[in-house]
Specification:
Length: 215
């Protein structure tokens, strides 16, 4: 009798394992939070300043196992070489601001299920080179709008987060990124800066507008 009970128990356990495996096979894989981060995807933008317009493009060229993406910045129609950038995206966060591959430091620009008022703040030491005008001090990204409707390339994007980037080292600088969860950055509006011949830093209006994308 005991042997029969054990056999029945083992048979039931085996069926349970098989049923669980069957369920796992049909379980839907988790959808990426930032699906626009895919190798081969490319965005073309009109970069607009007071001096005029030029076209730039970003293309996702490669992905590492650590979820860093190599992104090539190209100045379309120019002889300037492409510039390597490394962006980061996983199921929880996205950013264009990383120090990969020199370090795994990254500054979160947007997080899953972010709300208006969510803010990511970092301290970045000032460059040792006095001629280096990189942003430093308190560097922050703050969500200032959610589900904002944004027009571009003949359509309306409604899954858009508006994220403001600021830095205490450059008080007039800011960049408002309009980021669609499905399509990436739709546009950017803000104030850029430049220093010419060791003079004071000058600020100027700067914008990107999506011209086309290949996905």
């Amino acid at each position: 009798m005991m042997k029969k009970v054990i056999l029945i128990f083992m048979s039931g356990l085996l069926l349970l394992i098989l049923f669980s495996c069957k369920q796992d096979e049909h379980q839907e894989p988790e959808k990426p939070t930032f699906p626009f981060m895919k190798v081969g995807n490319q965005w073309n933008y009109r970069m607009i300043t007071e001096a005029g317009e030029r076209e730039i493009s970003y293309m996702v060229a490669d992905k590492t196992k650590e979820n860093y993406f190599k992104v090539l910045l190209n100045f379309v129609g120019s002889e300037l070489p492409s510039v390597d950038h490394f962006w980061y995206a996983d199921q929880q966060t996205f950013t264009m601001a990383t120090e990969w591959p020199d370090s795994n430091l990254k500054l979160t620009m947007l997080a899953k299920d972010a709300k208006v008022g969510d803010r990511w703040e970092y301290f970045v030491p000032a460059p040792l080179d006095p001629e280096n005008d990189d942003l430093s001090g308190t560097v922050a990204y703050e969500v200032i709008a959610v589900n904002a409707s944004t027009m571009a390339i003949g359509k309306t994007f409604t899954d858009v987060y508006k994220v403001r980037h600021t830095a205490s080292s450059h008080p007039q600088f800011y960049a408002d990124y309009f980021m669609s969860l499905s399509s990436g950055i739709i546009k950017m509006e803000g104030m850029g800066y430049i220093r010419i011949d060791d003079e004071e830093i000058e600020y100027f209006p700067l914008a990107w507008q999506l011209k086309s994308k290949n996905f």
